[in-house]
Amino acid sequence: MTINTDKAQEPPEDERPAAAPEDLKAIPVRHFGRWVAAAVALAVLAALVNAFAQGKLNWGAVPDYFFNADILKGVRNTITITILSMVLGVVLGVILSVMRLSKNPVTSSVAWFYIWFFRGTPVYVQLLLWFNLGLVFEYINLGPIYKDYWSSFMTPFLAALLGLGLNEAAYMAEICRAGIQSVDEGQTEAAHALGMSHAKTLRRVVLPQAMRVIVPPTGNEFINMLKTTSLVIAVQYYDLLQSATNVGQTSGATVEMLILAAAWYLVLTSVLSVGQYYLERRFARGSLRQLPPTPWQKIVKANLLSFSNRQAGGTA
């Protein structure tokens, strides 16, 4: 009698390993709307490029005058008035935000009225008011320090600085107030419990933590200020737009110089955007466990991975 040893050694059905599932083939979803949107965008872009190409424009004038001495002077003046106006706006904005949060009704009311007035009137109107206040004040008299006619005192540079800086202070006051209020009140109470004064608590505890909230909108305000400086042409300040307009009138390439000015504004705002990115990244160190890689680090990492893959493929 023979015994089938193969059957005897087979395990029970419930103890047999489950059959491997069949490989699933994932079919990606087709987004036809994306292709349609891309085609429409490319068609609009091609139409714009064709319209400008067919226009009666001397495109060679743009690179020829890009580094013109008058244009570069306008660029320098634009950068100067932007930086000084932002410094004035930030310093005064911090003071106004502290005044607005003060328990003193007089200081908080003064700060509220300042913010209400300068946020409620256009920058262009404020520039014209500062430039034409000589109709109201014939002299400026600071006693033994300074005395002169208002028309001589209020130069185009000073009118531009006051018009832009004082207006920016109203917006920076609200940004700083939001940043200060974002800090937990327990931080202030703990600092006071340690014997720190209100000013020292604000300087050492509150403001450093509020910077994470203050910095991003401040960077946006800086970029916006750079573009707003084009309004100082109203007070005859020689900025980038004024220089481009003058060069366009003398050279006969009016539209070309406006395109050149737009290109310079794009260059400057791009540089400021890069600086804003790294500044925000620096102040985000306290809120993120690990900072995301910068664009340069992503490029370096991608190149290293591709190089290591090539090396592995060559040695295999």
From TrEMBL:
<feature type="compositionally biased region" description="Basic and acidic residues">
    <location>
        <begin position="7"/>
        <end position="20"/>
    </location>
</feature>
<feature type="transmembrane region" description="Helical">
    <location>
        <begin position="111"/>
        <end position="137"/>
    </location>
</feature>
<feature type="domain" description="ABC transmembrane type-1">
    <location>
        <begin position="75"/>
        <end position="276"/>
    </location>
</feature>
<protein>
    <recommendedName>
        <fullName>Histidine/lysine/arginine/ornithine transport system permease protein HisM</fullName>
    </recommendedName>
</protein>
<dbReference type="InterPro" id="IPR035906">
    <property type="entry name" value="MetI-like_sf"/>
</dbReference>
<keyword id="KW-1133">Transmembrane helix</keyword>
<feature type="transmembrane region" description="Helical">
    <location>
        <begin position="35"/>
        <end position="55"/>
    </location>
</feature>
<keyword id="KW-0813">Transport</keyword>
<dbReference type="InterPro" id="IPR000515">
    <property type="entry name" value="MetI-like"/>
</dbReference>
<comment type="subunit">
    <text>The HisPMQJ complex is composed of two ATP-binding proteins (HisP), two transmembrane proteins (HisM and HisQ) and a solute-binding protein (HisJ). The HisPMQ-ArgT complex is composed of two ATP-binding proteins (HisP), two transmembrane proteins (HisM and HisQ) and a solute-binding protein (ArgT).</text>
</comment>
<keyword id="KW-0812">Transmembrane</keyword>
<comment type="similarity">
    <text>Belongs to the binding-protein-dependent transport system permease family.</text>
</comment>
<dbReference type="InterPro" id="IPR051322">
    <property type="entry name" value="AA_ABC_Transporter_Permease"/>
</dbReference>
<keyword id="KW-1003">Cell membrane</keyword>
<feature type="transmembrane region" description="Helical">
    <location>
        <begin position="149"/>
        <end position="167"/>
    </location>
</feature>
<keyword id="KW-0472">Membrane</keyword>
<dbReference type="InterPro" id="IPR010065">
    <property type="entry name" value="AA_ABC_transptr_permease_3TM"/>
</dbReference>
<feature type="transmembrane region" description="Helical">
    <location>
        <begin position="75"/>
        <end position="99"/>
    </location>
</feature>
<feature type="region of interest" description="Disordered">
    <location>
        <begin position="1"/>
        <end position="20"/>
    </location>
</feature>
<dbReference type="Pfam" id="PF00528">
    <property type="entry name" value="BPD_transp_1"/>
</dbReference>
<feature type="transmembrane region" description="Helical">
    <location>
        <begin position="258"/>
        <end position="279"/>
    </location>
</feature>
